[in-house]
Amino acid sequence: MSEVDRGFGVDLGLSRTNKVRLVQALVVLGVVGFVEFAPRLGLVSPTTLIPLSEMVDELAGLLGSGDLTPHLIQTFVAVFGAFALALVVGIGAGVVLWKVESLKQVLDPYLLIYYAVPFFAFYPLLVSLIGLGIAPILLIAFGFSVVIIVTNTASGLGEIPESYVLAGRDMNLSTWQMLRHVYFPASVPYVFTGLKLGFVYALIGTIASEFILADSGLGWLIAYNYNNFDVRGMYAAMLFVVVLALVMNGVLSYVENRLYRRVRT
Amino acid sequence: MLDITDISKTYGLGDDRVSTIVALDDIDLTVDRGEFVSIIGPTGCGKSTLFEVIGGLVDPTAGEVTIEGSPVTGPDERIGMVFQDHSTFPWLSVVENVEFGLRRSGVEKGEARDRAMEMIELVGLSGFEHADPTELSGGMNQRVAIARTLVMEPDIVLMDEPFGALDEQTRLILGEELLRIWRETNATILFVTHNINEAVQLSDRIAVMSARPGTFKTIVDNDIPRPRDDDTMSTDAFNDLVQRLWTVLKDESKKGLSQKAQQAGAEQ
Amino acid sequence: MSTRSTRFRFDGDVVLLGRVAVPLVVLALWQVLAMSVSGFALATPAATFEALVGGFRSGWMIDGLQRTMTELVVAYALAIVVGIWVGVVLGLNDFWHDVFEPIVLGTYAIPKVTLFPIFLFVFQFGMDSKIAFGWFHGVFPVAILTMSAMATIEDTHLDVARSLRLSRWQTFRHVVVPSILPGLVIGLRLGFNLTFLGIVLGEMFASRAGLGYTLVEYIAGVQTAPMLAIIVVLVLIATVVNVGFFALENHLGSRGSDTAQMA
């Protein structure tokens, strides 16, 4: 109940928040330490895992020599292109669904089931329709990303407290003014959550598509290096994708928390 | 029967738990069998902490709670507790809620059901045995909570602002109902509230708590004759007692509010 | 909702009619698209149906299904057990919850397919790597939603349990489980979807059997009818399982959309 939860036995005289951060740092250090030292100490075969420092080394080399650049460009164009498209289409469609109640009711069960479909199964289909290259990857990433933005926008607008709307009406705001000064600011945090997930999904969609069937891109590079027993190159590309995903997620989560804090207080 | 002796409770405060806050300081109270005693006090005075300490949910820093001389060291079968609100289980029907404690303590199914049905009738919920709590009003949910506690036949019933979340009319009606149930079951009740009228309507004695650190400023006998009904509330005796209690409580409430403001300021 | 007056409204019949029309529209679009491109690029619905029936008759579809379903069931069962265990443990302890919540959510955001080669290194080429990979996809939503469902348990309900002197097990069985069940079921559904995705992805990338593998084989051979037949089977499996879960969620009164839960 209201008893103090000390978490773990040793009391270092730290505040709870700092203890949480300390243990988090230890967990992360533990994982990093394992990746660095397990191959060095022979716990894991060096053909399976290479030390983290060597991954960083290799990645720096690849970035410096420019060998990675075409793959970077391909992946970034696909991710950001798909996300930009999903943002425009998704928010637009979300507003339409919110306005046209019956359409939302018709589509609701299909939207819910959308992410249940193993999406990448369609990727080969697109390849057979429009051929290899960036277009089918961008389409898959877009399809993966857009629906989460649509549903978040529609429900974000739908969940605006009635009192805001009544207050706006009371001030005789025009439709445009209502959108601009009431609906938009009130729904920003919810819409942003959709955008955050949309970006993560676009990234997943791009990497996975490249992985299965492509001729360039970071996902392709990982798969290619794996198939050609280039463990160093594979881990270097892997490290880049993981760090990119974690950094983007961290930044977007930070912005998201700030937005929610403003709406909540 | 219930003896509360020199109870104190100190909490660690803030992130580092270095500074402390004294929630309860030297509380003494005796409740006799069959008595109805209320504890009133300003917001944040530690009423709820006292309720949890007496019920054995929280250990006191110092002091002792005993029933008939034997100490209460944790949750105790001799004590029944009724909580403020949201205490009924929404996934169980009314009768399943009421028989919940009996079933868990090993009472056989048929007997538990019979006793639960009896109790449901006593609290005036006949006809709603198989309804879901979510279909019922807040007042009816509190009747369910009271029945769930009384069916265990505790020696003493603790209630923490059981009508605190209800509207004034429902609160009055449930107060009268509680008095009827109290008469019919000969229960012993210790009732925590911040509502002076409610305390005067219900109790034999009223203990007034101070602002933090919570301690009893005074314990007042309530001689207003029973049965008390709507007319009682307009008598001079009733109003005089309310006025007397308010005079004591007013200063403490102000103190409590300024403490609250200081605390909010410190957290900023 | 407040804005109801500004919306267009029809009666329920129109909605029902619309819902029935959606798959028909998809079918019609498929037909039109198939007719406008060459048969090599896209088979018609009729040709696909024929390939579907043929696949079951000749048995290749059944073999693939058996393999994929075995992997799916094992991976999903493991994801449920581990996910619920982790979710309950972290949900019961504030400290470890605060430590691990950002770590779990952060890991969840990594495109898991990136790490698939590691699974191949550790578990080899056979079923194990696909099971491990499917599990890795599914365990996160189960754990995350169990964890957040644990936070919705009413403190008062736990106080009631303590005052009635319930044992640890009784409290878990009669208070914790019914409290978290609605959120848990959403986690189980999302967990199923991601496990399924992980299994199919794993088979598509590196396997010698299973529907994912067969799918890639037919693409390489430019046989769009059996390829589409496999996609239809995969979509049907996902749909049936999800409709079942939705029925259960409605029954339990689960609240919240997918998005709110996954955020």
From TrEMBL, chain A:
Swiss-Prot/TrEMBL keywords: Cell membrane, Membrane, Transmembrane, Transmembrane helix, Transport
For whether the record's keyword set contains Manganese, the answer is: no
**Which family is this sequence assigned to?**
Belongs to the binding-protein-dependent transport system permease family.
**Any idea where the ABC transmembrane type-1 domain is?**
72-252
Q: Where exactly are the transmembrane stretches of this chain?
A: 20-38, 72-98, 110-131, 137-160, 181-214, 234-255
Q: Which organism is it from?
A: Halomarina oriensis
Q: Which GO terms describe its cellular component?
A: plasma membrane
Q: Which SUPFAM superfamilies match?
A: MetI-like
Lipid bilayer topology = Multi-pass membrane protein
| Signal peptide range | none
Note the superkingdom of the native organism: Archaea
Q: Does the keyword Transmembrane helix apply?
A: yes
Q: Where in the cell is it found?
A: Cell membrane
Q: What is this protein called?
A: ABC transporter permease subunit
Mainly resides where? membrane
* Pfam families from the UniProt entry: BPD_transp_1
Name the InterPro entries on file: MetI-like (IPR000515), MetI-like_sf (IPR035906)
Q: Which GO terms describe its biological process?
A: transmembrane transport
From TrEMBL, chain B:
Q: Does the keyword Lipoprotein apply?
A: no
Listed name of the protein = ATP-binding cassette domain-containing protein
All copies of the ABC transporter domain together span 2-236
Q: Which PANTHER family match?
A: ALIPHATIC SULFONATES IMPORT ATP-BINDING PROTEIN SSUB (PTHR42788:SF13), TAURINE IMPORT ATP-BINDING PROTEIN-RELATED (PTHR42788)
Supply the source organism for this entry: Halomarina oriensis
Question: Which GO terms fall under molecular function for this chain's record?
Answer: ATP binding; ATP hydrolysis activity
Q: Entry's SMART domains?
A: AAA
Q: Which SUPFAM superfamilies match?
A: P-loop containing nucleoside triphosphate hydrolases
Query: What Pfam family is a match, any one?
Result: ABC_tran
Q: Which InterPro entries match?
A: AAA+_ATPase, ABC_transporter-like_ATP-bd, ABC_transporter_ATP-bind, P-loop_NTPase
Where does the record locate the signal sequence feature?
none
PROSITE patterns per the UniProt record, alphabetical: ABC_TRANSPORTER_2 (PS50893)
Q: Give the record's keywords alphabetically.
A: ATP-binding, Nucleotide-binding, Transport
TrEMBL record, chain C:
Superkingdom of source: Archaea
Keyword Membrane tagged: yes
Q: Where does this one sit in the cell?
A: Cell membrane
Give every ABC transmembrane type-1 domain span: 65-245
Could you give a single Gene Ontology term from the biological process aspect? transmembrane transport
Where do transmembrane segments lie in this chain?
Answer: 12-33, 39-60, 72-91, 103-123, 135-153, 180-206
Q: Which InterPro entries match?
A: MetI-like, MetI-like_sf
Q: What does the record say about its membrane topology?
A: Multi-pass membrane protein
User: Transport among the record's keywords?
Assistant: yes
Keywords noted in UniProt: Cell membrane, Membrane, Transmembrane, Transmembrane helix, Transport
**Which GO cellular component terms, listed alphabetically, does the Swiss-Prot or TrEMBL entry include?**
plasma membrane
Family (UniProt): Belongs to the binding-protein-dependent transport system permease family.
Q: What is this protein called?
A: ABC transporter permease subunit
